[in-house]
Design a protein that fits this description.
Elements lengths: L20 H19 L3 H30 L8 H4 L3 H22 L7 H7 L7 H30 L4 H24 L3 H24 L6 H5 L3 H22 L5 H19 L5 H8 L20 H11 L3 H20 L4 H19 L4 H8 L1 H6 L4 H7 L2 H10 L1 H11 L3 H6 L1 H12 L13 E2 L2 E2 L1 H9 L1 H15 L4 H26 L3
Antiparallel strand pairs: 1-2
């Protein structure tokens, strides 16, 4: 008698139907109730929250309102406002381009939507529609960036003194909402990065034309468009930004969980890298981006002599990140423009332009320190190099300095044509700026005693101490570069200041290398 075949197993259940959006709303409500229950909304915690909110509002809000009142109460606009008024349309257009570029750059790394990792791992894995879950985050991004943009517009209008407050606030708010929408598009459609790469040259060309129009050699049609009046332009901007923001919010339900997970990791890494002890964590995460890897298309043959190992590593890192020299050249050109804009104005405006130029030069150096950041990420790597730690740190500035001297040639030439010999200060200060950036890169781990601080009438000083520790590189660069770039010093004093600042910052960077390696 032949054996009967085993009966086939019953078919498994088919894929569950996606619940309606109401299920997602119920999930969000339950999550919020569970979160409130876990936090334990006691009277003590509520009082603490109220105290923190009121204290922050009093410290920041009252200071801002006091400054705003004193600025608006001035009998007449500042003297330099007359020079800004003719180029205000170009300045606004440049600000829009800069905000859009920063939004795209931020979205390639993290984006405007701050999703918590538990939400990605648990909530988005459930078979519920994602759009109701993403809508509160998207609306919060619109509200936060719109508020920041509105306050920025208010501050800019108060400083200039010749701009109406209401249009400036609305323009800043629309700019903030538009930046959040652009960032969300980049997060939703990862393939848009290629399109943006093709559009980057056109954006740079538009910025160059706007700079040329502001400085006089060429007249852009922006002024003719601005002549139609602020409310017409605001109406056109609102007609573009508001529908775009609504359309982008409707598409956020299709964002993948992997994309949100990488962005959540990036948000956490940047937050922890900035405020905890890992000083280079944020740089590594920002450079790599979300789910990206450096290009290996271009390679250099390893050196035959150990002494050239640092130069080889730095050059290889820049070849794998070809956009770093482009960003460096753009920042150096903007620094030269800032120096030219401050020439011949009142001392306060010259000092402000010099500080802006120094920060832009620091921004030009920072993307080139790929090898230095790699070495600074792990202190033991500095001991593996065939140099003393102090010499190895200084050698990390050789390739960035050479690249920066080449990329800064257009900016220095433009500054020479516009302001004469002062443009040479931009090139003369580059060694000091590279040394200052290296000192900031090798600052090491955050000392634990900075978290203690001391009590003062303004509160505990620990946050200020931690912030200044992270900003020691930019602070050193500003102190070294701003006085010679301002034009307030005579030529001999400026030359002496530049030489002394270069020597001091080089010695400071070498000392940072010895302390970093514990020798």
């Amino acid at each position: 008698m032949s054996a009967q075949p085993a009966p086939a197993p019953p078919p498994g259940p088919g894929p569950a139907a996606t619940p309606p959006p109401a299920a997602a709303d119920e999930v969000v409500r339950r999550l919020r109730r569970a979160r409130r229950a876990a936090r334990g909304r006691s009277e003590e915690s509520t009082a603490t929250t109220v105290y923190i909110v009121v204290f922050t509002a009093l410290m920041a809000g009252m200071s801002f309102l006091s400054w705003l009142d004193s600025t608006l109460a001035a009998p007449e606009p500042p003297a330099w406002a007359g020079r800004v008024a003719p180029v205000l349309p170009e300045a606004v257009a440049l600000a829009v381009l800069a905000v859009l570029w920063l939004s795209v750059r931020d979205a390639l790394v993290r984006g405007p939507i701050a999703v918590e990792r538990p939400m990605v791992d648990w909530l988005l894995a459930l078979p519920v529609p994602r759009r109701p879950l993403m809508r509160p985050l998207m609306l919060r991004a619109y509200a936060v960036r719109g508020a920041v943009g509105g306050l920025s517009g208010l501050a800019a209008a108060a400083v200039i003194g010749t701009v109406a407050l209401a249009p400036a606030i609305l323009a800043g708010g629309l700019m903030g909402v538009g930046s959040a929408a652009v960032g969300a598009v980049v997060v939703r459609f990862p393939e848009s990065a290629r399109v943006l790469a093709w559009l980057a040259p056109f954006a740079l060309a538009a910025a160059a034309l706007l700079f040329a129009s502001a400085l006089g050699p060429w007249d852009a049609p922006v002024a003719a468009l601005a002549a139609t009046g602020p409310w017409v332009l605001l109406g056109l901007a609102a007609a573009v930004v508001v529908p775009a923001a609504v359309a982008v919010e409707r598409t956020m339900g299709g964002v993948s969980a992997g994309t949100l997970r990488s962005r959540a990791d990036m948000h956490a890494a940047i937050r922890y890298g900035l405020w905890l002890s890992e000083s280079t964590w944020s740089h590594d995460m920002l450079r790599e981006g979300a789910g990206r890897a450096p290009s290996t298309r271009w390679r250099l043959r390893p050196p035959s002599r150990p002494g050239a190992l640092v130069f080889w590593r730095d050059a290889t890192g820049l070849l794998r990140n070809p956009m770093a020299p482009v960003r460096s050249a753009a920042a150096a050109a903007l620094a030269a423009v800032a120096v030219a804009a401050g020439a011949g104005t009142e001392p306060a405006f010259q000092a402000g332009a010099a500080v802006a130029a120094a920060l832009l030069l620091y921004a030009a150096v920072r993307p080139l320190l790929v090898g230095a950041d790699y070495t600074a990420a792990v202190p033991q790597r500095l001991l593996l190099l065939p140099h003393r730690p102090s010499a190895a740190v200084l050698l990390h500035g050789g390739v960035p300095l050479a690249v920066l001297l080449l990329t800064a040639v257009p900016g220095v030439a433009a500054a020479l044509l516009l302001v004469g010999a002062r443009g040479l200060a931009v090139a003369a200060l580059l060694p000091a700026i590279v040394a200052g950036a290296l000192g900031g890169a090798f600052r090491g781990r955050l000392p634990a005693h900075l978290w203690t601080g001391y009590e003062s009438p303004m509160g505990n000083s620990a946050p200020i101490q931690v912030l200044m520790w992270h900003l020691q590189g930019p602070t050193a660069v500003v102190l070294a570069a701003a006085p010679p770039l301002s034009g307030l010093l005579s030529a001999p004093v400026a030359v002496g200041w530049t030489a002394a600042a270069t020597v001091l910052l080089v010695a400071w960077a070498a000392r940072k290398g010895r302390a970093f390696a514990g020798r």
